[in-house]
Amino acid sequence: MARYQFRDTTRIGPVEIGTFTDRYGREAHAAACTAPGCDWSASYLNRPAAELAARSHRCNPR
Ligand SMILES: [Zn+2]
């Protein structure tokens, strides 16, 4: 079963951003950190918010 189809993916540091359509048919923007051991991710209603979150994200040292 297909999950979200991401488009316009970009990368800011270790964080990837992708635009997708959520299950309500709205456009949403996900930011997810790809660094090993960091499972931070979040979704936003607009692209600048996702990009800002990606830029300000700092991997959580344990
Ligand atoms: Zn991280």
Question: How does this structure look, described?
Answer:
With 62 residues, the chain is an alpha+beta fold. It has one domain (7-56). It has one helix at residues 47-56; strands at 7-12, 15-21, 27-33, 41-44. The chain has a 4-stranded antiparallel sheet with strand order 1-2-3-4, covered by helices on one side. A hairpin with a 5-residue loop joins β2 (15-21) and β3. It is globular, with a radius of gyration of 12 Å. It starts with 6 loop residues before the first strand and ends in a 6-residue tail after the last helix. The model has no long low-confidence stretch (mean pLDDT 91). The structure holds zinc ion. Zinc ion binds at residues 14, 33, 35, 38, 40, 57, 59.
Features:
four-stranded antiparallel sheet, 4 strands, 62 residues, globular, alpha+beta
Q: What's the quick description here?
A:
This protein is an alpha+beta fold. The chain has one domain. The chain has one helix and four strands, in the order ββββα.
DSSP summary, beta strand count: 4
Given as residue ranges, the uncertain stretches (5+ residues, pLDDT < 50) are: none
What are the secondary-structure elements, in order, as H or E? Answer: EEEEH
Helix content percent band? 10-25%
* Total of DSSP H or I helical runs spanning 4+ residues: 1
Computed CA radius of gyration, to the nearest angstrom: 12 Å
Query: Which ligands, by name, code or SMILES, are bound?
Result: zinc ion
How are the strands of the biggest sheet laid out side by side?
A: 1-2-3-4
The biggest beta sheet is recorded as: 4 strands, antiparallel
Shape, per Cα inertia axes: globular
Overall mean pLDDT stands at 91
Ends apart, CA distance between termini:
35 Å
Secondary-structure class: alpha+beta
**In percent terms, what proportion of residues is strand?**
35-45%
Q: How many structural domains?
A: 1
